[in-house]
Automatic annotation (TrEMBL):
Keywords: Acyltransferase, Amino-acid biosynthesis, Cytoplasm, Methionine biosynthesis, Transferase. This is Homoserine O-succinyltransferase. The keyword Cytoplasm applies. NCBIfam families: homoserO_Ac_trn (TIGR01392), PRK00175.1 (NF001209). It is an enzyme of class 2 (transferase). It is found in: Cytoplasm.
């Protein structure tokens, strides 16, 4: 029986863009495709659309299942659906796989029409502002001139923030969750260690591993294991795994002994089966390069001066990757720019991944804010 709070069985769609796009890197892609999904109904005035921007390893499948037997629903199913905080009875919700991704949108593993082989190392770097440009083109294609809200966590929050600067007229509300105005040196360092694990894998072949019928699985696995550690909190990890041993006794070897070792290796193996190494490199560089204040003398308030949106900024107490202090930097810049902003710091033991978790205080804040958005746009 279908869960009434689920969007149910969904299917993805592909949008084809024959209009070239000039990327921030200086490279022009002559054409590209974006994979996306929608949930809910666009109202007559086209005022109730919400765009969900995904984080590093996310994609277009935000909610629902492709078939009843699917083990897992979309990556934000606890947030999106009938009666949920992002209520599909009221809003028309769009999730898409960003350009450069590996879940159906044009990316490094796609076939380059000029060569008939995967782009591989020839696929250009793509920045957050490029993603926003492609998302705007998808909105044009769907007949959406202004979003009721653009929402994203982590790297997704950066996209929501970028939208308000690049297209101020097209965003009524931006919900920036567990994000940051730019990465710290420590965060860039984590990303580079992850990239080095991939770049030095003998199976990487300079990014053209597709031609060798292999995958740099070892590097991708290590990158994911490193990343996963930073997405959790020490307390959360301790509560879930502690120093539990698989066999109950020390074996004095380098094999898996602690449960946390087993968990991380499982996560690394699973990720290396479903994700593309070149996309991982591209996504982490997009994170590193994000700095909307760069062309405004380093002043984020000046960068946000033209924004017309209202903002909700949310952080989580145990998130040390994008700590609450980073969200408060965004809030301060918005206040300095005299923008309307609400801020919530949620008590949570789940670290950076808290923005994906079902948590009553967090969901209540999202629901309350979006109820006001719905009333504004008559959704």
């Amino acid at each position: 029986m279908t869960n009434p709070s689920s969007v149910g069985i969904v299917s993805a769609q592909k949008a084809v863009f024959d209009q070239p796009i000039a990327l921030s890197s200086g490279v022009t892609l002559p054409r590209y495709e974006l994979m996306y999904e929608t949930y809910g109904t666009l109202n007559e005035n086209r005022t109730n659309a919400i765009l969900i921007c995904h984080a590093l390893s996310g994609h277009h499948h935000v909610a629902g299942r492709y078939q009843e037997s699917d083990k897992n629903p979309g990556w934000w199913d606890n947030m999106v659906g009938p009666g949920k905080p992002i209520d599909t009875n009221r809003f028309f919700v769009i999730g898409l796989n960003n350009l450069g991704g590996c879940h159906g949108s044009t990316g490094p593993s796609s076939i380059d029409p000029e060569t008939g082989t995967p782009y591989g190392s020839r696929f250009p770097l793509v920045l957050v502002r490029d993603w926003v440009e492609t998302q705007a083109r998808l909105a044009d294609m769907l007949g959406i001139h202004q979003f009721a809200a653009i929402i994203g966590g982590s790297l997704g929050g950066m996209q929501a923030l970028r939208w308000t600067i690049t297209y101020p007229q097209r965003v009524r509300h931006a919900l920036v969750i567990a994000s940051a105005p730019r990465l710290t040196a420590q965060n860039i360092a984590f990303n580079d260690v992850a990239r080095q694990a991939i770049l030095t894998d003998p199976d990487f072949h300079g990014g053209d591993f597709y031609a060798h019928n292999t995958v740099p699985r070892r590097g991708l696995r290590l990158a994911r294991m490193l990343g996963h550690i930073t997405y959790l909190s020490d307390d959360g990890m301790g509560e879930k795994f502690g120093r539990l041993l698989r066999s109950g006794e020390y074996r004095y070897s380098y094999d898996v002994e602690f449960e946390i070792e087993s968990y991380l290796r499982y996560q690394g193996d699973k990720f290396s089966d479903i994700f593309d190494a070149n996309t991982y490199l591209l996504m982490t560089k997009a994170l590193d390069y994000f700095d909307p204040a760069r062309h405004y003398g380093g002043d984020l308030a000046t960068a946000l001066k033209e924004a017309l949106a209202k903002f909700l900024v949310v952080s989580f107490t145990s998130d040390w990757r994008f700590a609450p202090e980073r969200s408060r930097e965004i809030v301060k810049a918005l206040l300095d720019a005299r923008k309307h902003v609400s801020y919530a710091e949620i008590e949570s033991a789940h670290g950076h991944d808290a923005f994906l978790m079902e948590d009553a205080p967090y969901h209540n804040i999202m629901r309350a804010y979006l109820n006001r958005v719905a009333a504004e746009v008559n959704a």
